[in-house]
Amino acid sequence: MAEITRDELRIINETYSDPDERRRVCEAVESGEMLAYIIGKWFFYRHDFVINRDCLVPRPDTERVAEEAIALLPENGSFADLCTGSGCIGLTLLDERKDCRRGLLIDLSAGALDAAAQSAKLLGCNERAALVTADILSDDPLGDEKFDLIISNPPYIRSADIDTYPGLAAEPRLALDGGRDGLVFYRRIVGTFAKNLANGGAFVFEIGFDQADGISSIADENGFDAKIGKDYSGNDRVAVLRRRDSSRQ
Ligand code: GLN
């Protein structure tokens, strides 16, 4: 039984005028359904994003990743957002940085990209957004294009932890499972797509609260330095990786 939050109650009251419907939705949320999937949208940073059951529901902590990307993108820059899901990070960056030339948003799930495409239209940034379906663990959808930022909030929960983690049962396993040690995607992204960073470019990652050491080792092994930032609760959550040479000036 999940306790309904004040925020959820407010959204339910705003969305449904019929008291019977309100009660039904409250019961569904109390029994563990995610309100975002019921209403088909969720708030992130400064806007509502279209959400379906193929998307992870955007978390407030992920706003710190978006903030970092907004601050770091050079003028008229470009970026790739790998495992974009609902597109909340990449589309927020396009929306907040109107000078941004191009954002390439990639996900394995066509369903998630469908939600992202709808949000891109609603935000009016669809002309600068390219949405591509690809499995970044096996494909190389970036080719030889260079980007100022490569951003990712990949699946990072250890496979063995997913079923015991509180509050994740309703969301797609595909969006959460980061392999045996939770670091599979970071290893692949840094190892394969470092070639796609423009001069002075950076990786911006969301990481798990206990993955600062893991991401720092991966950075180190690939010739990068990692700077770790916190989320709203003071946990490690954001990692910015820069080439060791370009940070030593
Ligand atoms: N932030 C999610 C959680 O811990 C996990 C997201 C992810 O795997 N990228 O609830």
Question: Topology of this structure?
Answer:
Elements: H1 6-15, H2 19-30, H3 35-39, E1 41-44, E2 47-50, H4 63-72, E3 78-82, H5 88-96, E4 102-107, H6 110-123, E5 129-133, E6 147-152, H7 184-193, E7 197-206, H8 212-221, E8 224-230, E9 236-243, H9 244-247
Parallel strand pairs: 3-4, 3-6, 4-5, 6-7
Antiparallel strand pairs: 1-2, 7-9, 8-9
What are the main properties of this structure?
alpha/beta, 34% helix, binds glutamine, two-stranded antiparallel sheet
SS field, number of helical segments: 9
| Assembly type | single chain
Radius of gyration: 18 Å
On the 0-100 scale, what is the average pLDDT?
Answer: 96
Textual characterization of the structure:
- The protein is α/β, with parallel strands linked by helices and 249 residues long.
- It has 9 helices and 9 strands.
- The strands form 2 sheets. A 7-stranded mixed sheet has the order 5-4-3-6-7-9-8, with helices on both faces. A two-stranded antiparallel sheet has the order 1-2.
- The protein is globular and about 60 Å long.
- The site of glutamine (GLN) has 10 residues, from loops.
- The site of glutamine has 10 residues, from loops.
